[in-house]
Each structure stands twice: as C-alpha cells, then as structure tokens.
Write a structure and sequence with these properties.
monooxygenase activity; globular; TIM Barrel; about 15% strand; about 325 residues; monooxygenase; Luciferase-like_dom; alpha/beta; 9 strands; oxidoreductase activity, acting on paired donors, with incorporation or reduction of molecular oxygen; 11 helices; eight-stranded parallel β-barrel; Luciferase-like_sf
C-alpha cells in the first residue's frame, strides 16, 4: 500500500488574501481526511507575498482544529532559522492540543533570501549545525533525563515524530544514519531523487522511532476531466515557478491558455527541469504515469502538490487523485495475492 498525502503551499491568489488561503487549506484538509489522505503538511517560507504559511506552527494549529483524524504537520520547519527549544515547545504544544496527529518535518535550507535571513537573525553558518540541532530537538521531545535543567514545556515526553527533508544526498544520508523517515523534495528539485533514495536505504540504521526505511517523495499532480483542461490548470504553477526564476514572489495567477506566451525559452527549460516530477492529465493519463513512477521509485508515500488557482477545481483534483491511488493500491494488492 502506498500512502498518499498533501503538501499545501497555502498560495495567496490574486484578488485573495492570507485569511482566504488559510481557510481554504483547512477546508481542503477536512475533505482530504474523508478521501483517505494520510497527512496534510505546510512549509515554512518567509517574505513571500504569495504564500501564507510563514508562521507554520500557527497555520498547523488552524488546520488541525478544523479536522478530526488526518495527521497535520510541517513539511517543513527550517530548523536553522530557530532554536531547537522553541520548535520543541511549539510542536509540543500542538501535540498537547491534537495528540497523536502532529508531524515535524525538518529542513536545513533557509526558505527565503539572504536579506530575509538577516531579518530572521539567522547566522550564516547555522545550517552547518543542522545534524546537532536535530539531535537536540529529538532529545527535547523525548523523555526527561535525570538532572535535566532545560525542558520543553509542553514538548518533553511527547515524542512528536521527526522527518528529515532534503533535495540532495546530504539529508538522505543523515536520515539513514539517524533512523528517521525521509522525504525528498522532488516536486521542485527532482535531479537527485533516485540517488538520494538509494543513499537513504543503504545507510539506514534502525532507531526507536523507525525500525525500517520509510521514503516519501514530493510530486506535482494535477487532474481534470480531460488532458487539455489539466494542462490549462497547470499553467498557474508554471507561471509561479517562472516568476521565482525572475525573482518575483508574487501572488498566484489564474491559468492561461498558452504558457509559451508567458515564459521565454530559457525560462521554460529551467521551469520544466524544476517541475520534471509532475503528472498532469485526465484520470486515465495520470493513473498510467503514476503507476510507472511508483514502480520505479518504490516509495512508501507520495506527498502531493496540486497547485490549482480555483479552490473548487483544486478540491476536484485531489479527489481524483485519491480515487487513482485507491485503484492503484487495490491493483497492487491483487497482484501480490
């Protein structure tokens, strides 16, 4: 069985605002738990007018309050931006409010630009301490030790599950050595996907949290009744990536009929490389392509981005995806019987 989950970028649309985007995220999560999705993650990004999840732990609480059973978490928290104690307290508080439903994915990238790093009071070399910070955070979320003077309250003894996120072999090797589940950011940086998965699996050492390797991959999936409609809807994400290449972090744009009128040839090449791990089309098209990807990667779980401008059409896409995943899982069970 391949689990399927959602990464919501909490995009702020043109003619929208942060409140609408956060409420849409909550609404999507409420629907997703009815469709069989395992978890709903949001990510830490700063100084980006088009993304509403900068205060990630607050956004997680908003979504968790509006749902009942789906796991909610960070995919991820950029740990070098924070002290491990603060993150332990934040996610310990979330776990106290929503016990057994909180995930904590950790990345070492800043999630922003150099100027914003200074505003965050982030030391330029803080990413070098990422492995040590993860271990410190893990200890703060674990059992209180004799004579331990610094405690996360709430947080201690919560054992909030940690994930390592990455887009290179560094995070893969680290996740394997620490015995933690690993999520690869192939939805925007797919180049090292297969190398990273192999590195993680070969380096994995069992831990108290994870006895066997557990791999997740990010993937962009957009489903609509026809291939043509899905390609039209996908232009929103393609414009957003093009804008990032231009240094523009603005609002999500409505889809356009011909994306080639928007990007240059060089931008198209760069954007298509970043979005190479994308499946766009009708349910039949997506099911066929997705089955091949799952066979090739052998991942345990998909973390799915369906970046569509219209919220109702985004809901439709995620419902289609759930139906596709259920069909593929049923087929796999029959074949293995």
């Amino acid at each position: 069985m391949t689990k399927y989950s959602i990464l919501d970028l909490v995009r702020i649309r043109e003619n929208g605002n942060a409140k609408i985007s956060l409420n849409n995220a909550r609404n999507l999560a409420r629907q997703a738990e009815q469709w069989g999705y395992t978890r709903f993650w949001m990510a830490e990004h700063h100084n980006m007018p088009g993304i509403a999840s900068a205060a990630t732990s607050v956004a997680i609480g908003h979504v968790a309050e509006g749902t009942e059973k789906i796991r909610v978490g960070a995919g991820g928290i950029m740990l070098p931006n924070h002290s491990p104690l603060v993150i332990a307290e934040q996610f310990g508080t979330l776990d106290a409010l929503f016990p057994g439903r909180i995930d904590l994915g950790l990345g070492r990238a800043p999630g922003t630009d150099q100027l914003t790093l200074r505003a965050l009071r982030r030391h330029p070399g803080s990413a070098d301490n990422f492995p040590q910070d993860v271990l410190e955070l893990q200890a703060l979320l674990g059992p209180v030790q004799p004579d331990q003077r610094i405690r996360a309250v709430p947080g201690a003894n919560s054992h909030v599950p940690l994930w390592i996120l990455g887009s290179s072999t560094f995070g893969a090797a680290m996740a394997g050595e620490f015995g933690l589940p690993y999520a690869f950011a192939s939805h925007f940086a797919p180049d090292y996907l297969y190398t990273a998965l192999e590195t993680y699996r070969s380096r994995f050492k069992p831990s108290e949290q994870q006895a066997t390797p557990y791999c997740m991959m990010g993937i962009n999936i957009i489903v609509a009744p026809s291939d043509e409609e899905a390609e039209f809807l996908a232009s929103t994400q393609r414009m957003s990536v093009t804008n990032l290449l231009r240094g523009d972090r603005g609002l999500s744009k409505p889809p356009i009929a011909d994306i080639n009128t928007y990007w240059s040839i060089d931008e198209r090449v760069q954007a298509q490389r970043m979005l190479a791990m994308s499946v766009v089309g009708s349910p039949d098209t997506v099911r066929e392509k997705l089955e091949g990807i799952l066979t090739q990667t052998r991942v345990n779980e998909l973390m799915i981005v369906s970046d569509i401008y219209d919220h109702s059409l985004r809901l439709q896409s995620y419902e289609y995806i759930a139906q596709i995943m259920q069909a593929l899982n049923e087929k796999k069970q029959v074949n293995e019987a």
